[in-house]
Amino acid sequence: MTPECARATTLAAIPFRSLAAAQQESKTRHPEINRGMDVAPCRSRLQPMSLASMATDAYDAIQRLYQGGHSMLQQITDLRDETDELYRLLITLTADHWGRATLFKSWTVNDIVQHLHLSDILGLASATDVSAFDALRADIAAKRETGLTRLEETRQRLGDLVGPVLLDRWQQTLSQLCDALAAKTPDARLKWAGPDMGVRMFTTARQMEIWSHSQAIYDLLGIARPAASPRIRNIAEIGVRTFGWAYTNRGLPVPPEVPYVRLENGFEAPWEWHAPDRGNAVTGGVIPFCQVVTQTRNVADTDLAVTGDIATHWMSIAQCFAGPPETPPAPGTRRMKGTPR
Fold it and tell me: Which of 157, 159, 207, 287 falls 20 to 30 Å from 303 in CA-CA distance?
């Protein structure tokens, strides 16, 4: 292992503030961060691009659109809060729970948290030591080229880092990552697996991944996830704004009309995007919508009301995360424990 790769894999051992302490300090010094998000609805459209660059350019365009969002400090607070919410769930697990397979590709709870932890190690390296980030990515790629799957490579890399020890290490690394992101200027960019990402987009993408992967754990335990909070708008925003990305990422032309989206959140007036259109719309709860765009639920397993051919097709391929196109789960394959197919 190269020195750079070693640095990346040991970044999480740097002394850190606890998540709760960092979060409380931030709220004490900056009381304005407790406000709800105030992101203007996006009314622009992503247009089809050249085949050679459309996927990269489309996702980059989404990042530029997202620059109009709320303050960087609020986004980092949202990421810390998302981590804290999952931590409160995971701290209650028994040793048996950690090894149980979920309905997400049969990954165990250990697998999910290891995946989040390795992603945050990569993120911390990108934010603090680009050479370490490059070396770690190259080392992962080399292991994958030997025939290991992503899951197998992660299990091999993190070894016996499982259960409560893994939980604490993940929380520590995430706290360090948040501190590193807070030190960046809002227009800074970070290297990642795909195109470079702006700090705002990267921070929200980390929140989105934690939120989406936690769904499989809630499902395994037969527990309904907590009610929506203002920070879920980050994920809904990306879900709406990746309408064009879902198409360009698959080499498909972007439809000429963007669906109207109206989402109930349970604590304030519904959030709306685009001009009202009864013939081309997605309406319902914000949690089901986010479950569909993060591919933790098939739209058929939600109570979303979808009208019109464009909206219906979008919901069948929706993907708000970067990377190659992935097929959403089939109906009935992702559900809460005890829920019939």
Answer: 207
